[in-house]
Write a structure and sequence with these properties.
Layout (H helix, E strand, L loop, with lengths): L13 E2 L12 H13 L5 H15 L3 E6 L2 E3 L4 E5 L6 H8 L1 H38 L16 E2 L4 H8 L6 E7 H7 L10 H11 L4 E3 L7 E3 L4 E7 L10 H6 L5 E5 L15 H15 L10 E4 L2 H20 L10 H22 L10 H26 L5 E2 L2 H13 L7 E3 H9 L10 H10 L3 E4 L4 E4 L2 H10 L48
Parallel strand pairs: 1-12, 2-11, 4-9, 4-10, 5-6, 6-9
Antiparallel strand pairs: 2-3, 7-8, 13-15, 14-15
Length: about 525
C-alpha cells in the first residue's frame, strides 16, 4: 500500500474526528425518523443512516439497474463497514433498522420448513410408487422437486454457501456480519489450499453482479449468471489494519469497501426515547417497498435512466474527480481508491433516487432528477473524506489512534478560546476553567489531565511570566478547527445540569471534502496576526 501515513499529522498519533453525516442528503421525513433512531440508541446519526442505505441497496438488489450509459448498467449493492469502538451501541441500532429483513427471513424459513415436511411425505410416496412401477413395468412417476429456501440475507457463512443461496435468488443476498472482522478472517478458511484468493475473487465479481462458476465436481457445480452480493457489518478501528493485505489494494478488493468512521459526538446520557411507532414504521416501510420490487420480463432488471440535466451534472462531477487525481500529486496515494469511488457514486445515486421518488409517492422508474445527483455529490464528498481517513489508519497500522473524549474536548476548547491568545500562549488554567464551566464538581477536569493531552495533540508547552500553557500558531488553530470541530458538542456535558449550551460551543457545520496534512513542529512560537 502506498505511504498514506502523511495524511496524519506530525507530532501526534491521533486521527481527526470524523465529520458528521451531511444533512439534506436524504428526504426530510427519512432524516427525521433516522434521527429518532440515533437519539434512542445514543449513537451518531451516521450509524442508522449508513445502515439504512446498505439495507435499501441490498433489498433492491438486481431488480433495478441504473443506465449510466448504454454499455454500463449498475445496481445498488455495496460493501459497507461501520468503524467504531466496541460498546457504542451500533449493533442494537443497526439491528433495529434491519428488523424487516429479519422478519421476512423468519417467515420464509418457516414456510420452507412446511414445504420440506410436505416434500418428505411426497418423497416416501414416490419411492413406493417408483418401486411398484418398476415391478409392474409401468411408467415411472416423476420425482418430487426439493423445495428451495429463497434467503435474502446470511450471517455466519462461506462464499461456497453464499453461492448455493444465490443460485436460488437472482435478486441477490445481503451478507450481514455484526463483526465484519470475522467475515474477512474466514475468507479462504475452508478452502483446501487455505488461501483467500478464490473467495475474494468471487466477492470482487459479486460487487459488479458478475458471473460465478464453480466446476470442482458434478455434485458441487454451480453457474450463477449474475451473483449480486451486498455486505454490511461493523469493525473496531484497532482491528482494521490487520484485516487487509497489500495485494487487497492492488486487486481492488479493499477499494470496494466503504468504511465509515463513527465516534461518540456527545456523552451517551440516558434517554427515554425509543425507536418504535411512526418513526420505525416509516423507515421499515421503505425497506418493505424495496423488498416488494419484482424483476421485469424474463427475470431481467428494470432499467432506470438519467435525465438530460442529470447527465450534464454527472459529467461535470466525474471529470472533476478524474482531473483532481491527474493534476494533484498529493492524491496519488489514493489512485487505486478513486475509480471505485466513482463507480460507487452511481450505485448510491440509484438509492438516493429511489428514496426521493418513494418519499413523494412517485414511481422509481422515472428518470433520475439532477437534484438527486446533487445530493449524491454531497454524500460522496463526505464518503471520500471518510475513505481517506480510514486508508490512513490502514497504512499506518496501529501507529495512529482515534482521539479519546478528553483529547477531543481539549482540542475543541483550544479552538473556542483561540481568540484569547496572548503572545501565542493559551494558559492551561483557562482551558480547565472553560471545560469545567457549568459542570458538577465531580466531573471537573484537573490541570494535569489537560497537560497530558498536549503531546497527543502534537502541541508544545510553554510558559509566560505567570503560568504554563499551550504554545499555538495560526496553523495549529486552523488544523484543530478542521480536525476537531466544535460542532461535535463534546466539550461539555451541560445536559447533566440542565443548562443550555453556551454559544461558545457552537461551530460551523460544514463538511470538508478532503483531508490535509497538519501539525508541523516548530522550534519557536512567533507572534503573528494577533496570535
Amino acid at each position: 500500500m502506498s505511504n498514506m501515513a502523511s495524511m496524519a499529522f506530525e507530532g501526534s498519533n491521533l486521527l481527526p474526528s470524523p465529520t458528521s453525516f451531511p444533512q439534506g442528503v436524504l428526504p426530510a421525513s427519512v432524516e427525521d425518523s433516522l434521527s429518532v433512531a440515533a437519539s434512542a440508541f445514543t449513537v451518531p446519526f451516521a450509524v442508522p443512516a449508513v445502515t439504512f442505505l446498505a439495507v435499501i441497496g441490498a433489498a433492491v438488489g438486481r431488480t433495478r439497474g441504473l443506465e449510466v450509459k448504454p454499455s454500463w448498467i449498475t445496481h445498488p449493492n455495496l460493501y459497507w463497514g461501520l468503524v467504531a469502538r466496541s460498546g457504542m451501541g451500533k449493533s442494537p441500532c443497526s439491528n433495529a433498522i434491519l428488523k424487516p429483513i429479519h422478519e421476512q427471513e423468519n417467515a420464509a424459513f418457516k414456510e420452507h420448513k412446511r414445504e420440506l415436511e410436505a416434500y418428505e411425505l411426497e418423497l416416501r410416496e414416490w419411492q413406493s410408487s417408483f418401486a411398484r412401477a418398476q415391478r409392474k413395468n409401468d411408467t415411472l412417476p416423476d420425482k418430487p422437486i426439493y423445495p428451495t429456501w429463497e434467503q435474502i440475507y446470511v450471517e455466519d457463512s462461506t462464499t461456497q454457501a453464499v453461492g448455493s443461496i444465490l443460485s436460488n435468488n437472482p435478486r441477490g443476498i445481503l451478507w450481514y456480519r455484526d463483526e465484519l472482522s470475522g467475515l474477512l478472517a474466514d475468507l479462504g478458511r475452508y478452502d483446501n489450499k487455505g488461501s483467500d484468493g478464490g473467495d475474494k475473487a468471487r466477492l470482487l465479481s459479486a460487487y459488479d453482479c458478475g458471473a460465478w462458476k464453480v466446476s470442482r465436481s458434478t455434485k458441487d457445480a454451480l453457474h450463477i449468471p449474475h451473483a449480486c452480493v451486498s455486505i454490511f457489518g461493523t469493525v473496531q478501528p484497532d482491528l482494521l489494519p490487520s484485516l487487509f493485505k497489500h495485494k487487497d489494494t492492488v486487486s481492488g478488493f479493499l477499494p470496494r469497501f466503504l468504511f465509515i468512521r463513527c465516534e461518540q459526538e456527545a456523552p451517551p446520557l440516558w434517554t427515554s426515547e425509543s425507536f418504535d411507532g411512526e418513526p420505525a414504521d416509516h423507515i421499515h416501510g421503505f425497506i418493505h417497498q424495496a423488498l416488494d420490487l419484482n424483476f421485469g420480463p424474463e427475470n431481467s432488471p428494470e432499467i432506470i435512466k438519467l435525465s438530460d440535466a442529470a447527465k450534464h451534472k454527472v459529467k461535470d462531477w466525474y471529470d472533476n474527480q478524474v482531473l483532481s487525481h491527474w493534476y494533484q500529486p498529493e492524491l496519488e496515494q489514493f489512485e487505486s481508491l478513486a475509480p471505485k469511488l466513482r463507480g460507487a457514486f452511481f450505485k448510491i445515486c440509484l438509492i438516493i433516487h429511489m428514496l426521493d421518488c418513494w418519499s413523494t409517492g412517485k414511481s422509481e422508474m422515472i428518470p433520475v432528477h439532477h437534484e438527486s445527483i446533487q445530493r449524491t455529490i454531497v454524500l460522496m464528498e463526505w464518503l471520500q473524506e471518510q475513505q481517506r481517513q480510514v486508508w490512513t489508519l490502514l497504512s499506518a497500522g496501529n501507529k495512529f489512534q482515534e482521539a479519546s473524549a478528553i483529547e477531543r474536548r481539549v482540542a475543541q476548547a483550544i479552538v473556542a478560546l483561540s481568540k484569547e491568545l496572548n503572545q501565542a500562549l493559551l494558559p492551561t488554567s483557562r482551558i480547565v476553567e472553560f471545560l469545567n464551566h457549568e459542570l458538577p464538581e465531580s466531573f471537573h477536569i484537573k490541570p494535569d489531565a489537560v497537560g497530558k493531552t498536549y503531546k497527543k495533540l502534537g502541541i508544545e508547552t510553554g510558559r509566560n511570566s505567570k503560568e504554563r500553557g499551550a504554545k499555538l500558531t495560526p496553523e495549529i488553530i486552523e488544523t484543530l478547527s478542521r480536525y476537531f470541530p466544535v460542532e461535535k458538542g463534546v466539550i461539555g456535558v451541560t445536559d447533566v445540569t440542565g443548562a443550555n449550551k453556551s454559544s461558545e460551543f457552537q461551530g460551523d457545520n460544514q463538511v470538508t471534502s478532503k483531508v490535509t496534512p497538519i501539525f508541523q513542529e516548530s522550534s519557536g512560537v512567533t507572534s503573528k496576526n494577533g496570535y
